[in-house]
Amino acid sequence: MGNMSYDAIQSEEDYTIYDVFKNLVDLVKADTDLPKITQFIYGYWFNATNELVSSGRSSKLKEISKYPLIFVHADFKEKRGESLDVLAEINPKIYIFAETDANYEMSDRLSEIFSKILYPTYNILIEKMQTCNYFKLDYSKNKYPDIQHEKKDLYYISSEGDNQNQLNECVDAIELYFPKLFIKNNLKFN
């Protein structure tokens, strides 16, 4: 699926959960506070691995860094039909990956990878989720309500041992779990 731009309000059949996250990541990419352009993959682990391998082989894509990467793991149920203004209630896991050096100590990873790449990307992602109007949020308490989620920093992710990752590359990551995320119906993407 390519980039999609919508000028009119779309019906439920005109966009998918993929479109919502693709457009969300485009908003994150457009933020000039990020140190690098963020890449996006939606799907299952084998999709992410295959895409990263093929991007590494492409001479055109070798000039573009694969990381940081926002990966939306598509293994979640869509609860539909609960409300007219909600397309679906979902509980996705989102990962933010950054390439790291296998020789880095924990303090190096914190100062070079987490503080400079992962945390800024995470903060902008959450901010865009709060302000993009793609998600039904409770504004009764705050102008920008918190989006309920669990966050886990994943240091020393490698392709071996207990900290095995599915990408087979040396990366650090933040794992986000959203137990209830309500995607609005009739969205308008810019």
Task: Quickly describe the structure.
The protein is built from four helices and seven strands; from the N terminus they run H-E-H-H-E-E-E-H-E-E-E.
Q: Could you explain the architecture of this structure?
A:
The model is unreliable at 1-12 and 58-63 (pLDDT under 50). By secondary structure, the protein is an alpha+beta fold. It has helices at residues 17-30, 45-57, 59-62, 106-131; strands at residues 39-43, 69-73, 86-90, 93-99, 150-157, 171-177, 181-184. α1 crosses α4 (106-131). It is globular and about 50 Å long. It has one domain (12-184). It has a five-stranded mixed beta sheet, sandwiched between helices. The chain has a two-stranded antiparallel ribbon with strand order 3-7. It has four helices and seven strands. It starts with 16 loop residues before the first helix and ends in a 6-residue tail after the last strand.
Percent helix, as a range, is: 25-40%
Please, how many domains? 1
Tell the overall outline.
globular
Q: Can you summarize the main beta sheet?
A: 5 strands, mixed
Summarize model confidence as the mean pLDDT: 80
Number of strands: 7
Strand content: 15-25%
- Note the gap between the termini: 17 Å
Poorly predicted regions are: 1-12, 58-63
* Element-by-element helix/strand order: HEHHEEEHEEE
Order the strands across the largest sheet as they lie in space.
1-2-4-6-5
Q: What's the Cα radius of gyration?
A: 17 Å
Please report the number of helical segments.
Answer: 4
- Class per helix and strand makeup: alpha+beta
